[in-house]
Design a protein that fits this description.
The complex is a heterodimer. In chain A, helix 4 packs across helix 5. The longest helix of chain A is centred in the middle third of the chain and has 16 residues. Chain A folds into two domains: about 240 residues, P-loop containing nucleotide triphosphate hydrolases (Rossmann fold, 3-Layer(aba) Sandwich), CATH 3.40.50.300; about 250 residues, P-loop containing nucleotide triphosphate hydrolases (Rossmann fold). By secondary structure, chain A is an alpha/beta fold. Chain A has a six-stranded mixed β-sheet with strand order 6-9-10-3-11-12, sandwiched between helices. A six-stranded mixed β-sheet of chain A has the order 18-21-22-15-23-24, with helices on both faces. Chain A has 17 helices and 24 strands. In chain A, strand 21, helix 15 and strand 22 form a beta-alpha-beta unit. Chain B has a single domain, classed as Orthogonal Bundle (ABC transporter involved in vitamin B12 uptake, BtuC). In chain B, the strands form two sheets. In chain B, strands 1-4 form a two-stranded antiparallel sheet. In chain B, strands 2-3 form a two-stranded antiparallel sheet. In chain B, helix 3 packs parallel to helix 5 and helix 11 packs parallel to helix 13. The longest helix of chain B is centred in the middle third of the chain and has 31 residues. The chains are: A alpha/beta, B mainly alpha. Chains A and B meet through helix 10, helix 11 and strand 20 of A and helix 1, helix 8 and helix 9 of B.
Chain lengths: ~500, ~325
């Protein structure tokens, strides 16, 4: 075997109750390589990675690491071998500080006492090695998402990992933070650390990875040098067809204004003097960096955050919206970016989730008319093509895309006239994305007006009639027509253009 | 793999307490020949009805992610004051059959209203004051007991009525009245939990308060009502407890009720973290506790050791739940 090969898999396959979700995966990863894995949700990426990290045991196949065949029965086996994964949801303890997290379960001791100084020194070394400026004694909950990620990476390095697996690391990062992350990855690479990089974002895969493997329906479609494959090609092999029709044709909105916001500020100061208007049947995009105050604006509109001053005028009448119930009464529905945290109840079945905010329409006397609930749910399941074992399936057993469709149905069931959708396609695959774009387009054709908050530039550009760009709680520009392009949006979002 | 284990899990979650019930029932009937006698079974049911009624309200509180430790002290306070009001109402209305009935009705209303008020106090402190339910009800547990002691001068509240005990001691169609009320309220609470908006909302709040809030549910109000509900059940329970003995002790009336009520809910399969639960389970849980007590009595086990067994059952029930969810 080639000495340069750090990881080799031979005929890896995995079955769940007789269903093959991964079939015959053969890869050879070279030492110091950044190896990308792309594929839609359900393509088998996470199953494959879970096999490499000892969470699943493969049904068939062998794994060779550093030239020797290894058995990965438990996550501990993988960690001992030097395979460490940086999860999407960080495993850091918020109440502890950086060095305590890095040495959690692996504390340095002097006799029975903790050797605090030694741990701090090592942590500072690790962080300095990554060229990041985080104090070793900072509490985790005081760090930004990007900094937390750096701590996760430092933690992995503290374990002397040889193979680092990064699962969708950039979903929560701004472009600048992504650049920093990539800088660190290149630096680790030069130190000989091998990395597997899983992502939905093809441009990033092309930018950072040496080679990329495309998975589709559990099959290995191709492995290419990223120099020899462009993003379109990647997308094509991921979904097995052309991607051209991902966005529907834009619909011209009506003239009349349904929502007018004047000089809106929030008590907590996240929103400062925001003014904009929304036309009937319009898709109004909200772009900006993470932390620009877009979600906070939506939360102020629906009364979750307290309004300091300013007016919210709906169809010519000013309303004081104090809570989400008021907002619903005025026809405003909000679909949160944080699906699991705010959007759905994972231990509730599909009907109970969908009718939660609109339950009063499902009453007979004081009792819930469960038959009506089920009939309505069946309609939504058909309309949105929600895939579930049954109507009574709990949401925790649904995939991310299907959960998002249930959230969509839930918001729609309140009969909104103004629909605020925050990150409509975060963490879902290309096909489900496309479906959701077409749903949104259908909605505006029925006269519903949409506000779409998104960090995905293509989505903003491909979907919206006009684009509001925010920065630090203020609006820096409202773009129309040909001005809706990546450059203009970035200039306004970063404060190079527009008064911030 | 997922489908098979899923069926197992759901079955167990639904019927776990029922299986425990059947097992204990069978063991008990073999352990003592008296166990299966109708009088003994009715006795068990009557004994569990006092804390069982409170456990019905407690189910809502725990499903909503809360807890109420004050129910025992509340029972003493509410029961004591209702006896005082019974006595003064009898003075007010004078003697005679209907007059005494009127006085008893006053006492019942006072008991339930006072229970609701004491529960409302907990609810306000928890929702408006944003204090953890554990802390608030630990505080009111001390407060309600101390008020009962103060008002009752650390003695026993005694009623002057001869008819009042009929309520707690009486039978209807051969079944003790408290048992009828326990089962009747269980049916009512089951309907509230499964077939009304309120029931759906309290589950949603216990499952994820943020989701509930964003779904336009008035979270504070719904949680507040759950404490009022448990207060009402305390009021009802206090009526039967005081009428049975025609008195209630300010020192140990209702003591340990919080343990039994919470235990019934937990044994009945409602997770401490809230979000789901069944009234049926709670009823079974309460009866299981009663059967265990009964069996220990018949086997001649020291009453001082009954707490140990109860404790082990509670911890065991939670342990099984944990295993289940893994």
């Amino acid at each position: 075997m080639d000495n340069n090969i750090i990881l080799k898999t031979k005929g890896i396959a995995k079955e769940f109750s007789g269903v093959r979700v991964l079939n015959n995966i053969n890869i050879e990863i070279k030492s110091g390589e950044i190896f990308g894995i792309i594929g839609e949700n359900g393509a088998g990426k996470s199953t494959f990675v879970k096999i490499l990290t000892g969470i699943y045991t493969p049904t068939e196949g062998r794994i060779y690491f550093n030239g020797k065949e290894i058995q990965l029965e438990t996550p501990l086996d993988a960690r001992k071998a030097g395979i460490i994964m940086i999860p999407q949801e960080f495993n850091l303890i918020n109440d502890l500080n950086v060095y305590e997290n890095i040495f959690l379960g692996n504390e340095k001791k002097r006799r029975v006492f903790l050797n605090r100084n030694e741990m701090i020194r090592r942590t500072e070394e690790l962080l300095a090695g990554l060229k990041v400026n985080i104090p070793a004694t900072a509490r985790i909950d005081k760090l930004s998402v990007a900094q937390k990620q750096m701590v996760e990476i430092a933690k992995a390095l503290a374990f002397d990992s040889k193979l680092l697996i990064l699962d969708e690391p950039t979903t929560v990062l701004t472009r600048r933070e992504i650049d920093i992350l990539f800088g660190i990855m290149r630096q680790l690479k030069s130190r000989g650390v091998t990395m597997i990089y899983i992502s939905h974002k093809l441009s990033e895969v092309k930018e950072i990875c040496d080679r990329v493997m495309v998975l589709r329906d559990g099959e290995m479609i191709t492995i290419e040098d990223t120099d020899n494959i462009d993003e379109k090609e990647m997308a094509r092999s991921m979904i097995g067809r052309e991607l051209s029709q991902i966005f529907p044709e834009k619909v011209v909105p009506k003239e009349n204004t349904v929502l007018q916001v004047e000089n809106l500020s929030s008590v907590d100061g996240f929103i400062k003097d925001v003014s904009f208007d929304l036309k009937e049947g319009e898709i109004l995009g909200f772009a900006g960096l993470v932390g620009a105050g877009r979600t906070e604006l939506a939360e102020t509109l629906i009364g979750i955050r307290k309004k300091k001053h300013g007016k919210i005028i709906i169809k010519g009448k000013e309303y004081n919206i104090k809570n989400p119930a008021d907002a619903l009464k005025r026809g405003i529905a909000y679909l949160s970016e944080d699906r699991q945290g705010i959007g759905i109840l994972t231990n509730f079945d599909i009907p109970s989730n969908i009718t939660l905010p609109s339950l009063k329409h499902y009453l007979r006397g004081i009792l819930i008319n469960k038959r009506k609930e089920h009939e309505k749910t069946a309609q939504y399941i058909k309309r949105f093509d929600i895939k579930a074992a049954s109507l009574k399936s709990k949401l925790e057993y649904l995939s991310g895309g299907n959960q998002q469709k249930v959230s969509l149905a839930k918001s729609l069931d309140t009969g909104p006239e103004i629909f605020i959708i925050d990150e409509p396609t975060r963490g879902i695959d290309v096909n489900a994305k496309r479906e959701i774009y077409f749903f949104i387009n259908e909605l505006v054709q029925t006269g519903i007006s949409c506000i779409v908050i998104s960090s995905e530039m293509e989505e903003i550009i491909g979907l919206c009639n006009r684009v509001v760009v925010m920065r630090e709680g203020k609006i820096t520009g409202i773009l129309e027509g040909e001005h809706i392009n990546e450059e203009e949006i970035m200039f306004h979002a970063t404060g190079l253009k527009g008064v911030a | 793999m997922p489908s098979k284990s899923l069926i197992k899990k759901i079955d167990f979650e639904k019927y776990g307490s029922l299986i425990a019930f059947v097992v204990i029932f069978i063991i008990s009937s073999f352990a003592s020949p008296y166990f299966l006698q109708l009088q003994n079974i009715l006795n068990i049911l009557r004994q569990v009805s006092y804390t069982g009624i409170i456990a019905l309200g407690m189910t809502f509180v725990i499903i909503g992610g809360g807890i109420d430790l004050s129910v025992g002290s509340m029972t003493a306070l509410v029961g004591g004051i209702s006896i005082l009001s019974l006595n003064s109402a009898m003075n007010f209305f004078g003697y005679g059959y209907w007059n005494e009935i009127m006085a008893i009705i006053v006492a019942v209303i006072v008991s339930i209203a006072l229970g609701a008020a004491a529960g409302a106090l907990n609810g306000v402190a928890i929702t408006k004051g944003r204090i953890a339910p554990f802390i608030v009800t630990l505080g009111t547990m001390a407060i309600y007991r101390s008020l009962a002691l103060y008002i009752g001068k650390a003695g026993v509240f005694r009623s002057n009525s001869y008819m009042y005990p009929e309520l707690g001691m009486g039978y209807f169609l051969g079944v003790p009245i408290p048992v009828w009320v326990f089962f009747g309220m269980a049916v009512l609470f089951h309907i509230i939990l499964n077939w009304t908006r309120y029931g759906r909302y309290i589950c949603a709040i216990g499952s994820n308060q943020k989701v509930a809030r964003y779904s336009a549910i008035k979270v504070n109000f719904v949680r507040f009502i759950s404490y009022v509900m448990v207060g009402v059940t305390v009021g009802v329970s206090a009526v039967f407890l005081t009428s049975r003995l025609n008195s209630i002790s300010s020192t140990n009336g209702g003591s340990g009720y919080e343990l039994d009520a919470i235990a019934a809910v937990i044994i009945g399969g409602t997770p401490m973290t809230g979000g789901s639960g069944t009234i049926f389970g709670t009823v079974i849980g309460a009866i299981i506790l009663g059967m265990i007590n009964n069996m220990l009595n018949m086997l001649g086990v020291s009453p001082y050791l009954q707490g140990t067994v109860k404790g082990i059952v509670i911890i065991g029930a939670v342990l099984i739940q944990r295993k289940r969810s893994q």
